[in-house]
Structure formats: C-alpha cells, structure tokens
C-alpha cells in the first residue's frame, strides 16, 4: 500500500510541475510581447516630386533665353512676344536675375559687372543696341510688357537695376549711357521706384565722378519723357529730394558746384530744383534752432542777431524770414487744449515775442506775410479760431502790424481759409481804424 501511495504522490508532483512550467512560459511570453518595440527595417519611402528641392542651375535656363533672343534678333516686338510665351515654360520666378542680366548685358554678370566666361551669351541685348533715345524707349517697352505680364518680376527688376547701378564701373561709357537713358525712361513711366537711385550714392562711384555723369544722362531722359515736376514728385515720395548733393564727393558737395555742373550739362531745371530744396532744408534747420533758443529762454537780442546772420547766409527775404519766425514762436510752447484759455495764453506769449516779430516786419510785404501766416495758423488750429482778432490787435498795438497792412489784408489780400469768420471778427476793428484815419484827416 505504501508503494502505491508514493507512486500517486510522484505522479501528482509531476502534474503540478508541468502546469507551473506552462504558466511561467505563458507569463514570460506575454511580458515579452508587451516589451517589444517597433524598429526601423531600413525601408525607403519615395518622396513626392513636389517635395523635392530642385538644385539652382541657371545654365539650361540661360541657353533657352539666349537661343530665343538669337532667333528674334533686333526685332524688339518679336523679343517681347518670345519673352511672353517663354514665361509659361521657363521658371522666371526662380531665374529672374539671370533673365534680366541676359536682356541687359547678353549673359550672366559676375560680381563687378563682367560677363561670366563659362556661360552662353547673345549679341542681342541692351548693351549692344544703338545708343539713342528711340531705341532705349523701345527697350523700355519690352521690360514694361514683360513685367505687366508677369507681375511677380516687379521686385526682382528693381533689385536688378540697383545691382546694375553698383556695377557701373565695370561697364563701358556707352553701356553706362544706354543704361542711364533706359533707367530715366523707366522712372518717368513709373515702372521702377526712385529709391533705386540710392545705389548712385556708393562712395567709389561718387569719388570717381561716375555717379554724377550717369545722373546727367538719366535725368535728361527722365525730363525728356515727362518734366521736372515728375522728377520732383518721385524724389519727394522716397525722400530723395534732399540727397542729390550726395552725387558729389564731400569736398564738392555745395549748391554752387551742383548748380554749375548740371546747368553746364543742360539741366538748369534740376539745378533750380536742388537749390530750392536746399533752401527748404536750411529753413527747416533755422526754424528748429530758433524754436530751441526760445524754449531755452535765450535773450531776444541774441535771437535777433542770430536770425539776421542766418538770414544773410541763406539769402532769405524778410517775407520768408517772418514766416519762419512766426512758426518757431508758435511751436516753442505747449498750448492749452481749452479754447477759452488758449487765447489768453497766446496773447501773453506773443506779447513777450513782439520785439522779435517787429525786428523782421520793416516792410509792408513782411507785415502782410505775417497776417497771412496768422490767418492760416488760426484756421488750421481750431482752438485759435476765436483768437485771430485779439492777436492782430495786440500786434497792432505793439507796432508789429501797421494800419495800412491790416486794411489791405481786410479788403483784398486775405486767404480763403476761414475768410467769413475772420472778416467778421475784424469788422469792428477795421471800422475803428477807418474812422481814426478819417479823424486824423
């Protein structure tokens, strides 16, 4: 019996071991399943064509443009049609600089303005064309049509012109002349901004006289295409109207030198414009200085002496000077925003500076100029609308304004600005002046 019992125990223990082994294997397998992580198998995914970055290679583009220009030759109508059609097949956006280099110089330009030796070239380009205004106008039309058709080229074209101006020393005199005429025509027709002229202020170009010579040709073609008013408006728009003197080296940067250089070159209109701009600049500086002197509370005797000296230096008339003084006086104080208080403040302030105003109103025209400035100021600054008459009366009592000047202003010389309001304000005072005059007679 004992033998049989031990066999049963033995068999039972075997079964237990077997089940335990199976359980442990199962747990181990499950743990391994949880811990497994995905691994890269080395499989390569195909990149979509649109995501591939194309290598910059202008060679094929250049060959296509050069071939087309060689076929069209000097027929600029055919050139314009070829460029229009090619934009649908060639990447103008990517190779804009290459395109403009070829159209201007016949091939890609290396830094400095020389043609790249290892590239295909064409003999049909701006630089090999006839050096006359008519041909340059025809080329301007080619660029105009191209940019109107492909609007995205506009910015790239301006950048190209800026670059070409910096490369002027690398071009021949004839090439510079053609580029100057073309640029003038493009500026006149609004195809490019006058901001491109900043390239002409490059120190090396200025030093060697290249900038000034180029500017003569450029402004001549610009004025020929439009007029000096077009030049003035475009220069003012980009803040270039006061920078024309920078076309010359520092030691020649004077109004006299500028005037003689451009007048001798047949551009008196430009000389007069520059002289006028310098005068405006000098007036602004003088006004600013006077304003600062008043704000500091400098003695009026010193201010008068300084103003007389500056007036002589700038060759300003008394009529122009009184306008500057009035603006400086009225800008040197912080005005009250309340209408009922600003009149009192203005009378007090102007009473203080009446000796300064009197020193520069020795002529009838100067008095009239001052009256017009006062009218304009009171109209433009609404808080002063009711102060006009009191200001005029104060200056009359201070011997700044004469009876004759006031009567002339009232009867015929006033401005249209606020006319009815100011004439009504002055009515009683003018009547008093006339009665006083009759009484004296």
TrEMBL record:
InterPro entries reported in the protein's UniProt record: ARM-type_fold, eIF5-mimic_regulator, HEAT_5MP1_2, W2_5MP1/2, W2_domain
Domain of life: Eukaryota
GO biological process: regulation of translational initiation
PROSITE patterns: W2
GO cellular component terms given for this protein: cytoplasm; membrane
Start and end residues of each W2 domain: 276-441
Family of this protein: Belongs to the BZW family.
UniProt name for this protein: Basic leucine zipper and W2 domain-containing protein 1-A
Lineage, opening ranks: Eukaryota, Metazoa, Chordata, Craniata, Vertebrata
Gene transcribed to yield this protein: bzw1a
């Amino acid at each position: 019996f004992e033998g049989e019992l031990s066999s049963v125990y033995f068999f039972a223990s075997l079964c237990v071991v077997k089940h335990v082994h199976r359980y442990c294997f199962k747990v181990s397998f499950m743990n391994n399943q949880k811990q497994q992580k995905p691994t890269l198998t080395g499989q390569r995914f195909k990149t979509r064509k649109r995501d591939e970055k194309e290598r910059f290679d202008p060679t094929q583009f250049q060959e296509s443009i050069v071939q087309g220009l060689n076929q069209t030759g000097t027929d600029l109508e055919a050139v314009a049609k070829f460029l229009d059609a090619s934009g649908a097949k060639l990447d103008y956006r990517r190779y804009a600089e290459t395109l403009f280099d070829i159209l201007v110089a016949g091939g890609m330009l290396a830094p400095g303005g020389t043609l790249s030796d290892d590239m295909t070239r064409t003999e049909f380009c701006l630089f090999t064309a006839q050096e006359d205004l008519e041909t340059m106008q025809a080329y301007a039309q080619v660029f105009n049509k191209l940019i109107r058709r492909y609007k995205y080229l506009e910015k790239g074209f301006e950048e190209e012109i800026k670059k070409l101006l910096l490369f002027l020393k690398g071009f021949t005199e004839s090439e510079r002349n053609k580029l100057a005429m073309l640029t003038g025509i493009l500026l006149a027709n609004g195809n490019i901004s006058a901001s491109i002229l900043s390239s002409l202020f490059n120190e090396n170009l200025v030093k060697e006289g290249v900038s000034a010579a180029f500017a003569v040709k450029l402004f001549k073609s610009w004025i020929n295409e439009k007029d000096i008013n077009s030049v003035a408006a475009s220069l003012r728009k980009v803040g270039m109207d006061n920078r024309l003197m920078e076309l010359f080296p520092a030691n020649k940067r004077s109004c006299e030198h500028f005037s003689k250089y451009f007048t001798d070159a047949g551009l008196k209109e430009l000389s007069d414009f520059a002289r006028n701009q310098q005068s405006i600049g000098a007036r602004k500086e003088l006004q600013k200085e006077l304003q600062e002197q008043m704000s500091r509370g400098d003695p009026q005797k010193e201010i008068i002496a300084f103003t007389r000296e500056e007036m002589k230096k700038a060759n300003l008339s008394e009529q122009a000077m009184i306008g500057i003084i009035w603006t400086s006086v009225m800008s040197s104080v912080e005005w009250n925003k309340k209408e009922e208080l600003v009149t009192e403040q203005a009378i007090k302030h102007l009473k203080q500076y009446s000796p300064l105003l009197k020193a520069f109103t020795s002529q009838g025209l100067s008095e009239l100029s001052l009256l017009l400035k006062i009218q304009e100021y009171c109209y433009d600054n609404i808080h002063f609308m009711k102060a006009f008459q009191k200001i005029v009366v104060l200056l009359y009592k201070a011997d700044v304004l004469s009876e004759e000047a006031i009567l002339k202003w009232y009867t015929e010389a006033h401005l249209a600005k606020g006319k009815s309001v100011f004439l009504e304000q002055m009515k009683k005072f003018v009547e008093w002046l006339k009665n006083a005059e009759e009484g004296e007679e």
